[in-house]
Prior knowledge:
Elements: E1 8-10, E2 14-16, E3 19-25, E4 31-33, E5 37-44, H1 64-68, E6 70-77, E7 84-95, E8 104-105, H2 108-123, H3 126-139, E9 152-159, E10 164-168, H4 171-174, H5 184-199, E11 205-214, E12 240-243, E13 246-251, H6 253-260, E14 281-282, E15 287-288, H7 298-302, H8 305-314, H9 320-335, E16 337-338
Antiparallel strand pairs: 1-8, 1-16, 2-7, 3-4, 3-7, 3-13, 5-6, 7-11, 9-10, 9-11, 12-13, 14-15
Amino acid sequence: xIELCKNLSQIRSLFFSPAFFYWVDKNTHEEIPLExxxxxxxxxxxxxxxxxxxxxxxxxxxSRLELSYGNPQTIDECILSPxxxxxxxxxxxxxxxxxxxxxxxxxxxVRDALKEFASACKETGVYKELSRRYLLNIFMxxxxxxxxxxxxxxxxxxxxxxxxxxxLSDVHKRRRVNDLTGFEQEYKKLTERFALALTDKYExxxxxxxAKLKLRPFAEIFPSQTFSEANKDRSRVYSTFRSGxxxxxxxxxxxxxxxxxxxxxxxxxxxxxxxxxxxxSDRENATAHRHPDTGYDVYSIMRQADELAILMNSxxxxxxxxxxxIYYLAAMMVCGGMRQVxxx
Length: 344
């Protein structure tokens, strides 16, 4: 068992670019940056606070007329042009081996223990399992979020080592059961290349990922929303990147990373995948699956890094629960971040 120290941080191993949205003109086949429009709408006054007090009682003198008033709002909206043949969403990724060592650590014993843990993970194939999961999320298009409901989806990955392009078609059907039929050999090769980049500092890997989406006419597109305080006049603001004279719609790199790192089903009582995080944050269900009370949060498991490394190096069979701890801690080291003990 190791004790965490006051200075402990790690650089992440996965570097995502934003994902850029384009629409392809069915007549000219030109890729055109996808933009949004701001429009005013008259919504409804249907919020809880419009009619109720904090204690749950109805507001005094609340009239039916008042509740019938409209609620003017300005929102960003993106509707696909009738001239669009399909939509392209494209991002790049660099995979590195920063998980194999710490960026800063003021206790040599802690650094040595975590390096030994990472080395043992390399020898026992832990990074191949993580790579398999990352790639499955890439090829199943989970990073498309609300844009997965398509007539047809094709995902391609271009390996910039040799410019070879790996294409998986019919993703809109395959993603229901993670079907990789006919793509198994390519998937195995890419998994091994991903794992190599995670474990060898001289073998970093650059790729470009692209989704081609066939949508219904006039479909609504859903990029990232921004939380900027600078746009209080709009109740929904989309994230953009200036491209020439245009503000091109994007997924932020954070949102891309969040989807691809949704590989954690090693937490207690897991029945679905969640994003790898210190406390197993699950906003959809408003809970934290790795609350410190469970002993499965990153700090509790990191203290066991030396024991887990010894177990992996022993060659003994490892039970499912312990193996889940190993996968999770390795995935957290891939995420990087500040892990020191101290005040916020």
